[in-house]
Amino acid sequence: SDLAIVLFFGLRDLAVVHFPEWIPAIAFLIGWFPRRFFRFLKEKVFTLMGMRQKEAKSLPLEMIQGTQLFQRTRLSEAGIDDAENLANANLLELLLRTPFNPRLLIDWISQAKLYIIFRDQIYTLREAKVRTIFDLKRTMGDDEAKAALFAIVKRLSHKADAKKAGLREISEEELKVAYVACKDDKDIRWLESAQRCLLGLEK
Questions:
Q1: 124 vs 146: CA distance, rounded Å
Q2: Range 118-121 contact pairs with CB under 8 angstroms and sequence separation of 24 or more
Q3: Which residue among 77, 94, 184, 187 is least packed, with the fewest CB closer than 10 Å?
Q4: pTM of the predicted model, to two decimals?
């Protein structure tokens, strides 16, 4: 492809010193899998250089627990480049376009739905054992669990090392507003139904 040719000549002087016989093969593979290559290069080069990568997107997929480079690459190939896209993704379409099982995709999507609401407050919720939008609905829908969550979130945000640990303050009002917004959301209810169906099939 044109991309393989460009990379071949662009990297030739650097690569020829170390593995000259590999250059044609590498250029060929890059031509076939350009998106995977560039995502791999983007993540690995900054790691090797000891630099913190500055994400262009404010809601990176790296924040979704359980995703590694391979999974994020496959999601990117399906048009899911950040957590906002993932939160609004169609589960059935992702099942057709990616190799991941439905339980895993539902977990990622439900995490993303919570993340796009709370953003940098997500660490506080995770520390309080609320990692998905389903967890938030269950907790806020039970008076005893809700009161416990309010107390835990308040305690976490006032810890001595809260700022260093990324534990941001979340008010009771913010949690209540988020719950009202998500409790009757049709997409979330559909995902919950799909999850219950899968759990029933696996018993």
A1: 15
A2: 118/170, 118/174, 118/178, 119/58, 119/59, 120/166, 120/168, 121/168, 121/169, 121/170, 121/174
A3: 184
A4: 0.72
Report the alpha-carbon distance of residue 200 to residue 186 in Å, rounded.
21
Could you tell me if 107 and 132 are in contact, meaning their C-beta atoms sit under 8 angstroms apart?
yes
Do 109 and 101 contact (CB within 8 A), yes or no? no
Reference 87, options 69, 75, 98, 101; nearest CA is 75
Tokens of 84: 């906002």
Burial of 34 (0-12, 13-18, 19+ CB in 10 A): middle
b/e per residue 115-153 (b: at least 16 CB within 10 A)? bbbbeebbbbbbbbebbbbbbbbebbeeeeebeebbebb
Query: What single-letter DSSP state applies at residue 65?
Result: T
Task: Please report, in tens digits, the pLDDT of each residue of the chain (203 residues total).
Answer: 444 444 444 444 444 444 455 555 555 555 555 555 555 554 554 455 444 444 444 799 999 999 999 999 999 999 999 999 999 999 999 999 999 999 999 999 999 999 999 999 999 999 999 999 999 999 999 999 999 999 999 999 999 888 888 899 999 999 999 999 999 999 999 999 999 988 776 65
Using N-to-C axis directions, what is the helix angle for 23-32 and 2-15, rounded to 10°? 150
